[in-house]
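User: Fold this; C-alpha cells only.

Assistant: Input:
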Amino acid sequence: MRIANVVRLGNKELYCLIRDPILLFLIVYAFTVGVYASAIAMPDSLNRAPVAIVDEDDSPLSARIAAAFYPPHFLHPVMINHQEMDARMDAGLDTFAINIPPDFQRDLLAGRSPTIQLNVDATRMSQAFTGNNYIQSIINDEVAEFVRRYRGETATAASLALRARFNPALTQSWFGAVMEVINNVTMLSIILTGASLIREREHSTVEHLLAMPVTPLEIMISKSWSMGLVVLITSALSLTVVVQGMLAVAVEGSLLLFFIGAGLHLFATTSMGIFLGTVARSMPQFGLLMMLVLLPLQMLSGGVTPRESMPVIVQNVMQLAPTTHFVALAQTILYRGGGIEVVWLDFLKLLLIGTLLFVLALVRFRKTISLMA
C-alpha cells in the first residue's frame, strides 16, 4: 500500500463531497438544527400542554386549582362550559379537560370526598402519560393546602434528600443534545462512505480506478479516512458550538479522549458503510438497507433506553455492535467525566469490532471489484 495514493484518493473523495450539495446540507443540518431541535423538543416531558377547565363550582378553591396551571408545563387554562368540553376534545384543541362539579368546595369542607373529573386525549401519548400524574399532584396539593388553611409541606417521619449527580437540575436537554451528536456520528459515517462507493458505480468511475495503479485496500482506506475526518470535524464543532455554546450543556470529561473513541467508532462504521455500499446496487437500495441497519443500532445501543431494561438475548447480541460500546464510552466520558481507566475496555472492543468489519468489507469490496473488471 502506498500512502501517496491513499492521500490523493481521499482528497478526491473530499472534492466530490464538496460538489454534492445534498450531502453537505445533510451534514450541516444534522449537527446544527438536528442537535438543537432534539435538545429542546423534550419528547418525554410535559411542555406547554393545552388544558381546559369546566368550573361548575365557581368557588375560591376552584379558582385556586385553575390558577395552579401555568407555563412551561401547561398553557394558561381555557375556561369553558360543559357543552364545549367534548367538542374541543374531539377537535384536538385540548389535551386535558378538568371538570370541577357544583358544590365541590362545600362538599369537601363537609367531609363528603367529592370527585373531580379529568378527561385526557390519550392519542397524545407522551403528554397524556406524564400530564395525568402532574395534574393529580397539583390538584391534591391545592386541595390539601386549602383544607389546612396554609401553604407548606406536610411533616413526614422521614425525608428524602435528593442529590442528582452529573445533571443537578435534571435538565433533559443535556441528554438529548449529546445523544443526538452521538447518533449523528454513526448515521453520517455510514451514509457518507456507502454513498461515495455507490456514486462511483453510478458515475462509472470505478472502471477508471481499476485502470489506475491502486489497490482495493488503498481505495477503501481513502474513503474511510476522508469521510471519517469530515464526521469527526463536524461533530467536534457541534459539541463545542451547539452543545456547549448555544445549549450551555456541561461536558464533564475530556473531549480529546472522547474523540479518540469516536475515531475508533468511525473506523468500524465507515467499514460498515463500505460493506453496505457493496451489497446495495443503487442509492434507493442503500437507503432501505440503512433503515434496516441503522434503526436497531441506535435504538438498542443504550442511547434511547437503558440496556438493562432490554431482554438478555438482545443485550448479548448488541455486544457485537460498535454503537453499544461507543454510547457507553461517550456517556461515561461526557456525562460522568470518566477517564481512560474506566473506558479502556470499550476502546479495545471497538478496535476489535472495527478490525473485523474492515476485513469483511475489504473481502466483499475485492469481490465486487473483481466482478466489475
